[in-house]
Amino acid sequence: MDWIASYLTHHNLMLLLSVVWTAYVVVVGVWILLQRRAPVATLSWLLSMAVIPVVGIGVYYFLGPRRLKRQRLRRLRSRRKSRARSSIARLREKVPQAPDRLQQVVKLVTASTHFPISTADEVELLVGGAATFDSITDAVRAARHHVHLEYYIFEPDKTGLALLALLQEKARAGVKVRLLVDALGSKNLGRQHYQPLEEAGAEFALFHPTKLGRRVRPVINFRTHRKIVVIDGCIGYTGGVNITDEEDRRILPDAYHDVHVRLQGPVVNWLQTVFLEDWAYALDYNRRNEPSDFENILPELPEGKQVVQIMASGPDSSMEAIHRVHVAAIHAAAKRLWLTTPYFVPTEASMLALTNAALRGVDVCLLVPEKSDSRLVTAAARSYFDELISCGVKVFEYQASMLHSKTMLVDDFMGIIGTANFDNRSFRLNYEVCAIAYGEAFNGKLATQFQEDLKLARRVGYARPQPFWQRLFDSAARLCSPLL
User: Fold this and answer.
1) Under 8 Å CB-to-CB from 344, ≥6 apart: which residues?
2) Looking at 104-118, 229-243, 356-370, 407-421, which range is the least confident one?
3) 49 Cβ partners below 8 Å, 6+ apart?
4) 385 near 355, Cβ under 8 Å?
5) What secondary structure does DSSP assign to 183-211, as a single string?
6) Are the C-beta atoms of 65 and 427 separated by less than 8 Å?
7) CA 459/CA 396 separation, integer angstroms
8) Contact by Cβ (8 Å): 69, 218
9) What is the mean pLDDT of residues 84-92?
């Protein structure tokens, strides 16, 4: 009889656990469904929550997708828009040979970001961290009014400490220095590093510090991945290069291979606007505390010869501007579409756009690192290669070092360079910024650099031989694509 009682007790326990698990799945399922995300991402989260109950709900609570609401300095945008000319008219004037399909992309950028087309006197491609750091250092040293910096990674290593020392020097000389860094990406930058900067008269802020309490939940998974430098409102930088020794081959022989862009002219006003919005948000500014010296921060500058547009996106908007524009640009390509990205985890829409472009005869080339700093992302990326190659996409793996460049070249008329990777995180979770250059002048340089990079890359063949465990791992990593 004891075994019967034991069986019944065990049976009741299993029944109770089944009921609790079912109730858990239903409640979590309703919660996730109400987020109204992409079906694939929703199913991925549902499966994850079902497989790892209790722990899974904590993971989703802190890391699950959601939108942020934040106060924007819309007055800055309206101020600039009131002085901006018609985007399409300016494009036709500066790039008269631009096709209609490109003009549609321009309209999309403007509609989704509210940043119209602008111009630049100079658009310089900086190849490598060494060239980028030297250019930024020279510009900071020559600053007269202000230096604004925003970075995802700012390491207190040789590169970072040298820049901090220069910023302190400029702050003591009366230049207004504002430094904004992501709290997670720049976690090694401690108070002992930025306190001397503040004592010199500069301002410092952390973006989304992961403090305990209710603030952690909505912000821990949303990072500013932007790299922005603005000098005196007329010189600006953005691209893939962070402030770290890992980007400088003079310090580390196997440093990341990366590119950046230096802008000079009216378009810098829009890069400045992106920084000021993030700065205001990070410090919880209100209108009374907005910067007042607009004439110096957003100066009136004469028209430049090159047409450039700033594009920004983040989880505080449902537009997914950078995602939309990348997909639209791929569809607009007629001759070539050359894409460089360190992290390739495409959405369904972007994957379809790439394969469609190749199938209709566009020269589609994808350049990714042979080994990235994320084994999971590398595996997920490789799971897409055969599908891409079978449709005519040429896939190359860069072998010299870790490839960190983020560029896209569309025909001869449109080049995108910025901070956004070709993955879900950059498209939907991170705060990102890109510069789009229209016309042949800059894009010829971008094309030349792409071809130089291909010399250090290996073309991937269809159905390349792989051990079974590697194919299995790649396929499993692909399941995580919506979450990466």
Assistant:
1) 366, 368, 377, 381, 384, 421, 422, 423
2) 104-118
3) 25, 28, 29, 32, 56, 57, 60
4) no
5) TTTTTT--HHHHHHHHHTT-EEEEES---
6) no
7) 4
8) no
9) 71
The yes-or-no verdict on residue 360 having pLDDT over 70 is yes
Tokens 């828009």 sit on residue: 81
Q: Cα–chain-centroid distance for residue 391?
A: 27
Work out the number of other CB atoms within 10 angstroms of the CB of residue 252.
15
> 213's torsion region: left (phi>0), alpha (psi -120 to 50) or beta?
left
92 touches 100 (CB < 8 A): no
Q: How many CB atoms lie within 10 A of CB 249?
A: 15
Q: Are strands 146-151 and 176-182 parallel, antiparallel or unpaired?
A: parallel
Give the model's confidence band at 100: pLDDT under 50 very low, under 70 low, under 90 confident, else very high.
confident
Q: Residue 288's Cα: distance from chain center in Å?
A: 31
Tens of pLDDT, residue by residue over 366-416, are 999 998 777 777 777 788 999 999 999 999 999 999 999 999 999 999 999
Position 7 confidence tier, pLDDT thresholds 50, 70, 90: very low
* Radius of gyration for the alpha carbons in the chain, expressed in angstroms and rounded: 24
Roughly what angle, to the nearest 10 degrees, separates helices 2-33 and 55-63?
10
Residue 454 · residue 367 · CB < 8 Å: yes
What is each CA distance from 226 to 207, 276, 375, 479, in whole angstroms? 11, 13, 23, 27
Contact (Cβ atoms closer than 8 angstroms) between residue 313 and residue 323: yes
Separation of alpha carbons 285 and 279, rounded Å:
8
Which positions are annotated as active-site residues? 225, 227, 232, 404, 406, 411
> Per-residue pLDDT tens for 42-57?
666 666 666 666 555 5
Question: Higher-confidence residue: 69 or 172?
Answer: 172
Cα–Cα dist 140/129, whole Å: 16
Residue 433 reports pLDDT greater than 90: yes
- Do residues 65 and 35 make contact, with C-beta atoms less than 8 angstroms apart? yes
Q: Are 446 and 387 in contact (CB under 8 A)?
A: no
For 270, the enclosing helix (H) or strand (E) is helix 268-282
Within 10 angstroms of residue 57's Cβ, the number of other Cβ atoms is 18
Under 8 Å between Cβ of 153 and 184: no
- Other CB atoms within 10 Å distance of the CB of residue 257: 23
Model pTM? Answer: 0.84
In contact, 139 and 229? CB cutoff 8 Å: yes
pLDDT in tens, 307-351: 999 999 998 888 899 999 999 999 999 999 999 999 999 999 999
Segment 223-244, tens digit of pLDDT: 999 999 999 999 999 999 999 9
Cα–Cα separations (whole angstroms), residue 471 to 355, 384, 484: 22, 11, 19
